[in-house]
Amino acid sequence: MNDSEMAMHGHGSALMEGSPYAIPSRKLTMWLFLISDAVTFGAILFGYGYLRTASNDWPAPFKFNPSILNVIIMTFVLITSSLTMLGAVASAKAGDKAKANRFLWSTILLGVIFAGLHIREWFALIDEGVRLFQNPWGSPLFGATFFSITGLHLLHVICGVVAIAVISRGFSRGSLTVGHVETTGLYWHFVDLVWMFVVPLVYLLNISR
Amino acid sequence: MTAARKSNVIAKYLPVYFVLLGIAGLEVFLAYQHFSTAALLVILLGLAICGGALAVMYFMHLAQERRSLFLTLIPAVIFVLLMMNVIWPDSFRLLHMRPFAH
Fold first, then answer.
1. What is the predicted pLDDT for the residue at B95?
2. Beta bridge partners of A207
3. What are the domain boundaries of chain B?
4. Rounded distance, CA B17 to CA A79, Å?
5. What is the distance between the alpha carbons of residues A165 and A105, in angstroms, rounded to a whole number?
6. What secondary structure letter does DSSP report for B61?
7. What ipTM describes this predicted complex?
8. Cβ–Cβ contacts within 10 Å for residue A52, how many?
9. What does the DSSP 8-state code read for residue B86?
10. A10 vs B69, which has greater pLDDT?
11. I need a labelling partner for A117 at 20 to 30 A (CA). Which of A18, A41, A125, A147 fits?
């Protein structure tokens, strides 16, 4: 079939190749977005590493109580929310809408708890005098990198909570499918994955001894 | 059978879940040991990569997808992240306020 015939008949199914990855385009799109997001977080963490290495007065302000204790609870909450998201996807695939929705709302609740703990941590640091370009301890860039990295992650969590709420509503009404739940689950696990790198690099390497 | 399967939808993910929690706990424990910053960075980053790999392969089910998806996505990310290591010499130069090399 030449180009003009293709224009006449459109892209018929005989001309369309199957997906080389054997996954729906929605899922592939989410994977590609996550890959680009991973590189974004990677660049920000590398930038943080650059500034930390280049500063000889980088502060180490995180005490076990409250900061590290708070981070331990946040990590537990976020990893548990990944488990409830897995439950939501598995239940949706099994056709159990009610159970899938319960898992989705559990994930939302855990996401809100995580965001609340995160904001509490921010306010505690702000009370101690940390701002974007100043802090009482050392390199003024500490605040810029800390708030940028954790802020971008917090933004992802908040977007994820909103997305899961929308997906849950649509899935229970029948306007959205299992595929939507699964794709949102991919995003949520990615948020969890990023946190696994933020905790050691931003918090645990800056422990107050 | 179906009811039993439905009631255990998350049971098969529990081992990975506990390993991830264990890695997080180990990271905190090691952070309070007396390692140099460079050694601690390598250890914590290694553990984070292990945790991240588990999350990608089992929570995000990449292990169950076609290998072509893995080969398209993961090497590209690793390549880009490795290329970012080009910044470190300049970072160490700044630490000692050395002039640019001629």
1. 79
2. A62
3. 2-95
4. 7
5. 7
6. -
7. 0.89
8. 21
9. G
10. B69
11. A41
